[in-house]
From TrEMBL:
Keywords for this protein: ATP-binding, Hydrolase, Iron, Iron-sulfur, Metal-binding, Nucleotide-binding
Functional description taken from the UniProt entry: Binds and transfers iron-sulfur (Fe-S) clusters to target apoproteins. Can hydrolyze ATP.
Pfam entry (one): ParA
SUPFAM superfamilies (alphabetical): P-loop containing nucleoside triphosphate hydrolases (SSF52540)
Quaternary organization: Homodimer.
MF (Gene Ontology): ATP binding; ATP hydrolysis activity; ATP-dependent FeS chaperone activity; iron-sulfur cluster binding; metal ion binding
Binding of ATP, residues: 30-37
Protein name: Iron-sulfur cluster carrier protein
Biological classification of the source: Bacteria, Pseudomonadati, Spirochaetota, Spirochaetia, Spirochaetales
């Protein structure tokens, strides 16, 4: 059997899996450390709390932190038949798959070339029994390399990308590359999230612009892409992630939690994304999910 034959077999398996999933969303960042996984985990928690069936695929193979933030660190990959893997369940509406579940030593580095990373991601897409989902959120490492390219090529009906940045110029500079990557790949841009957008002092309640403020929003205006919202920095959010607890259901008033809930609501019900690969509308009023209701295109990732 030729390599091409094997490649096509895997593609068919991916198609069969992805056809059971409504919206496939890739979360990107141009620069590391901007809180992309934070956004992925919290959006997944909120969407599942809304009653949506959600899967999270961690494709950050060199630094898989999704499991820790969900509080399922130490879980193992399971299989009923020795061929198909079962995702780890966080709750009845939320499933997760990560390379960390296959690592015996969590401190061991994953030293893989591009071809091995591409193979692992395609295996996660083809051999994991995701079942019927409303959303598959795909967490990716920083940049626009092997992982992002593999996702786009393996899922040609990808709903779109969410790009995470912080306000400072160096992060926005790299986020612009993620915007242009999405456009070059013909993937709709659901929107940009400005994370770590100011810190409210817990003592005096004064807002401190640690990384500046508004850089992500200004980039959206300049590049004509939707802006999903700003998420302020909070110490309690960091503590919740380290403990692996759901921050959005924690007690007390948390501006960052409210911001993340609003963004999740916008993604699920609102007017900030598209599900089409036709990029001719980018930057126009039609680049939003409400357009789906009047869209006549037969888009396989279109929200029902």
């Amino acid at each position: 059997m030729s390599d091409k034959d094997e490649f096509e077999i895997v593609n068919e398996k991916i198609r069969a899996r992805m056809d059971k999933i409504g919206r496939k969303i890739m979360i990107m960042s141009g620069k590391g450390g901007v809180g992309k996984t934070t956004v992925t985990v919290n959006l997944a928690n909120e969407l599942s709390a809304m009653g949506c069936k959600v899967g999270v695929l961690d494709t950050d193979l060199h630094g898989p932190n999704v499991a820790k933030m969900f509080g399922i660190e130490g879980a193992s990959l399971m299989s009923n038949d020795g061929v198909t893997f079962l995702p780890v369940e966080v709750n009845e509406n939320l499933k997760v798959i990560s390379l960390s579940f296959a690592l015996e030593d969590q401190d061991a580095p994953v030293i893989w070339r591009g071809s091995m990373k591409m193979g692992a991601i395609r295996q996660f897409l083809s051999d994991v029994e995701w079942g019927d989902l409303d959303y598959l959120l795909i967490d990716t490492p920083p940049g626009t390399g092997d992982e992002q390219l593999t996702v786009c090529q393996a899922i040609p009906e990808l709903t779109g990308t969410i790009i995470v940045t912080t306000p400072q110029d160096v992060a926005v500079l790299d986020a612009r590359k993620s915007v242009n990557f999405s456009r070059r790949m013909g993937v709709a841009i659901i929107g940009v999230i400005e994370n770590m957008s100011g810190l409210v002092c817990p003592e005096c309640k004064t807002e401190i612009p640690v990384f500046g403020k508004g850089g992500g929003k200004r980039m959206c205006e300049d590049m004509h892409v939707p802006f999903l919202g700003s998420v302020p920095m909070e110490i309690d959010l960091r503590i919740a992630e380290d403990k692996g607890v759901d921050f959005l259901t924690s007690q007390g008033s948390h501006p960052s939690a409210e911001a993340l809930k609003k963004i999740a609501n916008e993604i699920n019900y609102g007017t900030a994304c598209s599900t089409s690969r036709d990029t001719s509308f980018l930057g126009t009023p039609f680049c939003k999910p409400s357009a789906c209701s009047s869209c006549t295109a037969d888009c396989p990732s279109r929200k029902k």
